[in-house]
Amino acid sequence: MSSPSASNGSLCGAPVPRPEGDAAADFSDQDLAAARLLFAQSCDFVAGAARFDQLPAIGGPEVAFAGRSNVGKSSLINALTGRRTLARTSNTPGRTQQINFFDLGGRITLVDLPGYGYAKASKARVADWTRLIRDYLRGRPTLARVMLLIDARHGFKPVDLDIMATLDEAAVVYEIVATKADKTKSGELERVRQAIEQELVRHAAAYPAHVVTSAAKGDGIERLRATIAAMALP
After folding, report:
1. How far is CA 228 from CA 10, 62, 83, in A?
2. Is the pLDDT of residue 172 over 70?
3. Radius of gyration in angstroms for the set of CA atoms belonging to the chain, rounded to a whole number
4. Which of 23, 103, 167, 219 is most buried, by the most CB atoms less than 10 A from its CB?
5. Does 171 have pLDDT greater than 90?
6. Residue 160 belongs to a domain
7. What angle do CA 172, 181, 78 make, to 5 degrees?
8. What's the rounded mean pLDDT across residues 94-116?
């Protein structure tokens, strides 16, 4: 296992009923302050797993970030933690080639998954990543929630729907996080948001709210921090 800079690249309960849409994820000032305090704590690389048997021992709650290659998982994790190089970023799809685990203040683990779908790697290697991702998502008892990232410029792709079906079958709660909102026009972004809301009602394990984010401009970051902080250990 290697550090993320050297690499290229159950708690599953039912969703808490809330109204649909990004506005459903509103938090109190106290919630936001507690989240800022959590994310101000140390966030350290714990392990990297290229195979299922390399996963670290079961511990506290984990929140995993999943999405297509180059959707912005590493950039979002860096924005959440306020650290530019915690998770390695690249414009090359498929840069993250292992599951990377980061301990946040000893209270929760952030998990950066390899991107699924297109990547600049061999078909066999991509198949290995995809199998590893699915095995982790279906078989990790401490997985509290999956943040499923969708590029706001493109919306859902068939491979996203395949992952959602896998999570539905495994009864793993997942929340849609739209990324790169700063790269879309307001009308396009609103259409994507409506498409997300329409799709969520079709999936049993989907959290009924979604979050729209921009790692570059900070949009949605505080709200997403509060969502994660609510799942952390006291």
Report:
1. 17, 9, 17
2. yes
3. 16
4. 167
5. yes
6. yes
7. 65
8. 85
Query: What are the tokens at 183?
Result: 């790269």
- Structure confidence by residue, pLDDT tens digits, 54-83: 999 999 999 999 999 889 998 999 999 988
Alpha-carbon distance 43 to 232, whole Å?
13
Pairing, β 143-151 against β 62-67: parallel
Both tokens of 145, joined, read: 């929630």
Whether 1 is covered by a domain: the verdict is: no
| Residue 64: inside a domain | yes
Type of residue at 220: G
Total domains present in the chain: 1
CATH of the domain at 182: 3.40.50.300
Domain that holds residue 132: 22-229
